[in-house]
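Supplementary Methods. Inverse-folding protocol.

Structures were first reduced to a discrete structure-token string of length 346. This string, shown here, constituted the complete conditioning input.
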């Protein structure tokens, strides 16, 4: 059987580790891209298409992939930093056999704009969400502690609030049934504490709390998760394990204990849809499903094109046996607001 895109990704990544210089980088880029190719490479080849149509595949890599397809090459066992991932093409296949999941999605609750490290404006992201049929979305640019990603201070956050209000008014006048929620991806420290003052956070519609430091630690990190789940200003924990394809395997924790704490708190854990994150993983998502954890889907998109990756999360949720009623993106705007209000009650 011809290798799948996921297996091709591993073959490319493995070959890249054996190469040097620009060839190593070419293999690494193509390995990452293979996770988000829309169609299986085997289908492209069998349909008479050119493999060079695939992102980051030039003539040399096209010949290499074609050889693997012809010879039904076996991919090696992936190392921890690449283990447990899936591909966008496979996610679409899973959802084809799980009707009803995509049609229930009403929102995307993590994305970025030019206010931090995104590539597009608030309006451009909103139009992308509207094209997908969403009724609401959350703009969640980075907070001030993450300087490398253009994190916002209080003044910049207030400026963004004014623009979101203006864009909401514009789009309402144009007949869009879409509400832009003003959120923030707040940087959390090792104790689960944020980097913004409470009075700065109070006007926001929602806060995604995420870890961005000490992500390669091999020590048990249960404490930082319990701290984050006790943070009264956070409604969603973003990309919880902090894994990243071909970079790091994610943090270690007493995950059953974390899931129990999450279920008790009511705070949502994110099913990050970005192909290079896929976080929560399928294994952790099964634990979350068993514990009855509230879950949130965010593409972590940095441009409108990346909004299309929500099926990566939906497929994992379907495979993990998640109760659709526990996914906040299936709720109406009013239901989401009521949930956030309940979390803020003592």
């Amino acid at each position: 059987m011809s290798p799948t895109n996921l297996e091709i990704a591993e073959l490319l990544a493995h070959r890249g580790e054996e190469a040097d210089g620009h060839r190593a980088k070419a293999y690494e880029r193509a390995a990452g891209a293979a996770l988000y190719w829309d169609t299986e490479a085997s289908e492209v080849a069998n349909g008479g298409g050119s493999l060079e149509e695939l992102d980051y595949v030039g003539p040399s890599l096209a010949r290499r992939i074609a050889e693997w397809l012809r010879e039904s090459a076996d991919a090696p066992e992936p190392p921890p930093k690449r283990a447990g991932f899936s591909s966008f093409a496979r996610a679409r296949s899973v959802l084809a056999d799980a009707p009803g999941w995509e049609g229930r999605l009403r929102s995307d609750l993590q994305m970025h704009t030019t206010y931090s490290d995104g590539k597009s404006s608030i309006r451009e992201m909103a139009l992308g969400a509207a094209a997908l049929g969403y009724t609401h979305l959350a703009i969640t640019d980075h907070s001030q502690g993450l300087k490398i990603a253009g994190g916002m201070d209080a003044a910049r956050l207030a400026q963004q609030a004014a623009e979101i209000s203006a864009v909401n008014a514009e789009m309402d006048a144009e007949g869009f049934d879409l509400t832009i929620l003003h959120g923030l991806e707040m940087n959390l420290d090792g104790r689960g504490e944020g980097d913004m003052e409470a009075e700065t956070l109070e006007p926001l519609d929602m806060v995604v709390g995420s870890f961005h430091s000490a992500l390669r630690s091999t020590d048990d990190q249960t404490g930082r998760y319990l701290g984050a789940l006790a943070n009264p200003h956070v409604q969603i924990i973003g990309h919880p394990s902090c894994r990243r394809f071909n970079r790091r395997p994610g943090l270690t924790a007493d995950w059953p204990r974390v899931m129990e704490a999450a279920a008790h708190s009511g705070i949502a854990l994110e099913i990050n849809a970005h192909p290079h994150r896929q976080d929560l993983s399928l294994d952790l998502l099964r634990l979350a499903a068993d514990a009855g954890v509230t879950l949130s889907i965010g593409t972590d998109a940095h441009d409108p094109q990346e909004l299309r990756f929500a099926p990566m999360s939906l497929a994992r949720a379907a495979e993990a046996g998640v109760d659709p009623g526990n996914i906040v993106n299936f709720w109406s705007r009013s239901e989401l607001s009521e949930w956030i209000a309940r979390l803020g009650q003592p």
